[in-house]
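ok so for the tutorial part 2 we go from a plain amino acid sequence to predicted structure tokens. step 1 is just haveing the sequence, like this:
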Amino acid sequence: MVKHILTIAGSDSTGGGGFEADLRTFQEYELFGYSAVTCIVTIQHEKEVDIYPIPTEVLDKQLQTLLDSSVNLPYIKVGMLGSLENVTWFSQFIQEHPNQQFIIDPVFSFKETGSYLKGQTDIVSFYQQEILPHTFLTTPNLLEASLLAEMPPLTSESEMKEAAEKIWQLGVQHVVIKGGTRMAGEEAVDLYYDGQHFQFFRLPKLTTNRINGAGCTFASAITARLAQEATPAVAIKDAKEFVHQSIQGGQPFYQQIGNVWQGANRS
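step 2 — the prediction. this is what the tokens look like for a chain of 267 residues:
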């Protein structure tokens, strides 16, 4: 029987990330994906990220439609919420649904442009105090992890471990810090921490700019494998390999920015 899964995320007009990437990932794992849209994101001239949030009452109605249905949605992947208002609303929503397993990809920085969501300080505070304590697993990138852990930019594996401990202490059960290509060396390194053990996942770095959507795909692939009853460690390992292939098969968009392609895993 086909399992069902939900993403709460923004729409990426380039098609690389956002709920578009999530749904394609779910499809590759033979899951039926549902989506609630939080915002519309455009990348202008390879440099600027424009975000147009969906009003909270519209977001709420989308989720009411899905969660009031007869569909079983135990795992929910959450990506970009798009505004302080939506983050504030979601901080209440997650507390009202204690039986859901939330996988939070705390998108408030953009590797493509180096920019941040407006209201960054307040948004980070809501994640720290109101969202992560009710979260099963979170997948911040290096910039997001440093903000959540209240540390300078992370530049080493030891700093990643320190940040993971601090984020775990906020109340989240499982922490995955995405090192990606920003860490020095020839390997793309991600770190998993469950409160007791650290585990690094490594694959060779790929020389390509077609990485838009890699973070979204990684988080949604983890969610998909968890929905298939994989352990977090197995889900992370499989997701990393899935993203690696998706980057290898990436598609061009701008000269400097291309999109990952989840279908490359079938090639």
